[in-house]
Amino acid sequence: MAYPTVSAPSGLIPVNRVDFLPYAGATRLLPISSTYNTAIFDGDVVMIKGGNIIKSNVTIDSTTDNTANLTYGVFVGVQYINGQSQTVQAQYYPGNSVSSAFGYVVDDPMAAFKVAITYSGNTTITTANSSIVGTNQTLRQGTGSTTTGDSAVSLIAPVVGSGNSSLAPVRVIAVVPETATGSNAYTEVIVKFTNPQILLAAAQNYV
To answer: Residue 33: is it exposed, middle or buried by C-beta count within 10 angstroms (0-12/13-18/19+)?
Structure first.
């Protein structure tokens, strides 16, 4: 039996770079508006809008922001000042009850991330076989945990023959054998962003 068992999605977890260089933990500190009231969890996809980062709702289309769905990077923590004027460093951003908030974001367009696979309609972990490698796939949004601070974003299990859309937010570049449940049944994959906002020719939403 594989170990460890993947029991729930936990967002996108940075692991290395597409060019096989190790991920050194580099992040960029980016502002969050004091009026932004949506929680952002460790492993959530974020985008830049109006000079601030916001949670990206990306699922299928990562090329326009009609539903705030661009992909700038992955949120991995926050610092802010709470109601007692204390500086807090935390795993997730709770909302607009704080001030002077800055998020730590992995925005390297060459970054690779580990992500769990779930069914499209819920957060139940499922598997895909190795034919998923090289395809573009969609993401499922979920409600992060205020207990752990972890995201609930996952990769939606593909149907046979899917994965050719250039609009899909991530490309699968590898499977994770350590958490496989069978000889060709993988609960996690390694992905990269297909259309990261930092590389878009039209720099919409940066100002």
So the answer is: middle
Residue 37, pLDDT above cutoff 70: yes
Q: Strand, helix or coil at 130?
A: helix
The set of residues, in sequence order, having a beta carbon less than 8 Å from that of 149 and lying 6+ positions away, is 41, 42, 90, 91, 92
Q: Using an 8 Å Cβ cutoff, are 192 and 112 in contact?
A: yes
Q: According to the model, what pLDDT value does residue 1 have?
A: 44
CA angle 88/207/201 to nearest 5° reads: 115
With contact defined as beta carbons under 8 Å apart, do 186 and 43 qualify?
Answer: no
d(CA 172, CA 155): 10
Please give the share of the chain, as a percent, with pLDDT higher than 90: 79
d(CA 47, CA 54): 6
Q: For residue 22, say if its preceding peptide bond is cis, omega within 30 degrees of 0.
A: no
Average of per-residue pLDDT across 155-171: 90
Pairwise CA distance, residues 118 & 114, whole Å:
13
Question: Is residue 175 within 8 Å of 190, Cβ to Cβ?
Answer: yes
Find the farthest-apart pair of alpha carbons in the chain and give their distance in angstroms, rounded. Answer: 54
Of 46, 31, 206, 76, the C-alpha closest to 141 is 46
